[in-house]
Specification:
By secondary structure, the chain is α/β, with parallel strands linked by helices. Helices cover 30% and strands 18% of the residues. The chain is globular, with a radius of gyration of 20 Å.
């Protein structure tokens, strides 16, 4: 039973537009790239006002190296007897159906879940997601950064096993409830984003068919159009300072994290993802600053700041709010 960690009373009139139920999710994975796999998943189901209904946890055999064991603690030996994703897909779906998916950096959890379902030639029954990072920004919480541990500490929630899917989901559920009530009390519109299923390229192999390398060789793309950035461009990025909402960010070349995932993270942080580079571009992200791509060449011509993917990932953790927000 979760404790009531908010001193704010439940609002007498709950916003009618708020969802009727939530699935607070955490997944641990073999890595961050497009072909990485889920190795454990947990779901806390909450009702319309954030009260816990039940919870569920499973390990998943990724049929490959488990990745950073020093982070999640799940070794090949531990995962060997775990079910495959296709074996838990139906049970997992029943936990998500007709609910808003809630996660910390929700675009990552959603992307991993959607790809796993795409591999089984199914669709995850999720239509909307809510990122608790975005919600904490809407609430103006005085957090030193946007890590789960900081959000937990703000609400007095004790983490017992960081990077264990079940405990991370529990911690997030405990922090989400007072956040939800505070949003309802203040009449804040929840930062809900649409979740559209990933689709295969017509020229690629059927989803779920494996290439000779053991993994699907086709690519999936979320079939959606990005909303316009609501913040004005504050200008160029300055080394040593944080990114600021509204900055125009362009990407060039290969990235270790899937490009679309990086772009989604940037959008959810309040940045403007630019498809081309101009004098108005605030920053170019590339792992190959000496390449001859048009964006790199233009960045040199315009004096646009250039950083690599790792540095960009660090900066995304603490994006400064736009002026006047």
């Amino acid at each position: 039973m979760l404790e009531d960690l908010t001193t704010a009373a439940s609002p007498a009139s709950w916003p009618a537009a708020y969802p009727q139920g939530y699935a607070v999710v955490d997944v641990e994975t073999t890595g961050l790239a497009r072909d990485d796999r889920i190795i454990s998943a947990a779901v806390y189901r909450l009702d319309a006002r954030g009260e816990v209904e039940d919870h569920w946890y499973t390990m998943v055999n990724p049929e490959r190296d488990p990745g950073p064991v020093w982070i999640h603690g799940l070794t090949s030996d531990v995962l060997e007897g775990a079910p495959l994703f296709q074996d838990i897909a139906e049970d997992f779906a029943s936990r998500l159906a007709d609910r808003v998916l809630v996660a910390h950096n929700a675009v990552f959890d959603w992307s991993m879940i959607a790809r796993e379902y795409a591999r089984t030639e199914r669709e995850a029954p999720v239509r909307q997601r809510l990122c608790t990072i975005a919600l904490s920004k809407e609430l103006g919480l005085p957090l030193p950064n946007h890590k789960l541990e900081s959000l937990a500490a703000h609400f007095g929630v004790v983490q017992q096993r960081a990077h264990h899917a079940l405990d991370d989901a529990r911690v997030l559920a405990e922090a989400f409830r007072p956040s939800l009530r505070a949003a309802a009390r203040d009449g804040i519109r929840l930062p809900l984003l649409e979740c559209r299923p990933l689709t295969e390229w017509a020229s690629g192999p059927r989803i779920g068919r494996q290439s000779s390398g053991g993994y699907p060789s086709g690519s999936w793309r979320p079939s959606r159009k990005r909303p316009a950035c609501p913040y004005p461009n504050p200008g160029r990025y300055e080394e040593g300072k944080p990114l600021k909402q509204g900055m125009r960010v362009a990407f060039s070349g290969d990235t270790s994290v899937d490009r679309e995932l990086l772009e989604d993270r940037a959008v959810e942080a309040g940045l403007h993802v630019a498809t081309s580079l101009s004098r108005l571009t605030s920053l170019l992200v590339t792992n190959d600053p000496d390449s001859s791509t048009s964006k790199v060449v233009k960045a040199k011509q315009f004096g646009t700041p250039v950083i690599d993917e790792a540095a960009f990932g660090q900066l995304l953790r603490d994006v400064e709010p736009a002026s006047g927000t």
